[in-house]
Amino acid sequence: MGDAMKVPVLSAGDGVRLRPWRLDDVRAVEEAAEDAYIPLITSVPATYSDAEGVAFVRRQWQRCADGLGYSFAIADAGDDRALGQIGLWPKEYGRASVGYWVAGPARGRGVACTALRAVSGWGLGELGIPRLELHVEPWNTASWKAAERAGFVREGLLRSWQEIGGERRDMYVYSKLPADLG
């Protein structure tokens, strides 16, 4: 990976595109910071300021520059406004993890599902990653339904898998393989 990594622009369809983060995307970071849950599971600041918003965007750039993975702004294809974030994080042994959030005002429009289809098609196809994984808390129905609509398959429940907000939480584990495309 290394310095050859670059976050591309991906047309996702359904009025959504994925693109690199820009400094003018801080409004989406502010909206995400207003959600009680997103800052617990991401690097979105719990208390928003313009400086914290800019720092978030710069962290997204740095992750790719450091070879850690790809952080995309999920953007409205019409006005290019950032609606959320999706990331693809390559790991060892031919796997990559996927994570995403959608800011409150953009929820309920299928944005997460559309972004998941696009990033998983790109990761499994163009990048040739053999297996994508994502983890979702069982109570987060909207998130796991988006994963299932995007072709991810629930493989099981990981008990006490991750610490969130100071407590151990169960997680559903989902995967998507090249054979699942299509």
TrEMBL record:
Gene3D superfamilies recorded: 3.40.630.30
Coiled-coil blocks: none
Keywords: Acyltransferase, Transferase
InterPro entries associated with the record: Acyl_CoA_acyltransferase (IPR016181), GNAT_dom (IPR000182), Ribosomal_N-acetyltransferase (IPR051908)
Protein name per UniProt: GNAT family N-acetyltransferase
Boundaries of every N-acetyltransferase domain copy: 16-179
Native species: Nonomuraea typhae
PROSITE patterns per the UniProt record, alphabetical: GNAT
The keyword Membrane belongs to this UniProt entry's keyword annotation: no
Enzyme class: transferase
UniProt EC number: 2.3.-.-
Record bears the keyword Calcium: no
Highest taxon in the source lineage: Bacteria
Any GO MF annotation of the entry: acyltransferase activity
